[in-house]
Amino acid sequence: MSKRAIRILLIVVVILGGLFVAADRLAVNFAESEAADKMRTSEGLSETPDVSIKGFPFLTQVMGGELDDVEVGIKNYDAKSGSDSIRIADLTAHMKGVEFSGDYSSATAATATGTAHVTYDELLKASRSEPVELPLGATGKVIGLSDGGNGKIKVAVEVSKGGVKLPKPVYVLSTVRVEGDNIKVHADQIPKSIDVLGVSIPLPEGTARNVTDFDQKIDDLPAGIKLEKVEAAPDGVDMSVTGSDVRLAG
Q1: What is the pLDDT of residues 26-74, one digit of tens each?
Q2: Which terminus of the chain has a lower count of CB atoms within 10 Å, N or C?
Q3: Separation between Cα atoms, residue 66 and residue 51, nearest integer Å
């Protein structure tokens, strides 16, 4: 074969390769858009999620009937919490081994791992809204949550007696953990007493924990993923999520 023929052949190969890459990217963009729309409908989302199909080429993955890696990002997801709901600011899930049906109407991932974030203001809604009775006619109510450092949550408790509030809240450091579908906030230590308007109010631990400790149930994460771990962060709590045989769409 002459040098001219080889040169022409190489040019043709490059052009065909470019056309294949362009077709592959068009196909993956279309698939991502379709999957996002289906997920928004099936999960009843207020916003269309971000769906990113990883790996190249996409078309050969489709021919094999399985996608290697799909990343889903959801903003402002309202997860059920009993009869109420809690807003998850950011939810990202990495799904591996995504198989889809013959007509492409549904897809299921073999495994999924990801992260989610709930702000302290949102988590605060899980605490008791009404003041809790303390000894000697005092009452207590959680009014704020913030980062306590070293993986702890700083819980601010407003204490009142005779309708008069303490000038400053009482603060306790709390541990946050996952138990089943619940995020649990548990005070590490309860003060034995507090001074309210010159009166020493004893704080029996059981009574005080009726104020400081609370649970937030999250039982409606999308696609069947579950809570695995939670830790305090500067502006809220970060959660790890996991799942198997996770439905992506359909």
Answers
A1: 777 887 788 788 878 877 777 888 888 887 777 777 777 778 888 888 8
A2: N
A3: 16
Query: 4: exposed, middle or buried (C-beta count within 10 Å: 0-12, 13-18, 19+)?
Result: exposed
**How is residue 68 written in tokens?**
């290697």
Mean pLDDT of all residues in 217-238: 86
Residue type (1 letter), 226:
K
**Range 197-203 contact pairs with CB under 8 angstroms and sequence separation of 24 or more:** 197/161, 197/162, 197/164, 197/166, 199/136, 199/161, 201/134, 201/135, 201/136, 201/138, 201/159, 201/161, 202/135, 202/136, 203/134, 203/135
The token duo for 151 is 């993986």
pLDDT digits (tens, 9 = 90+) for 155-178: 999 999 888 888 889 999 999 999
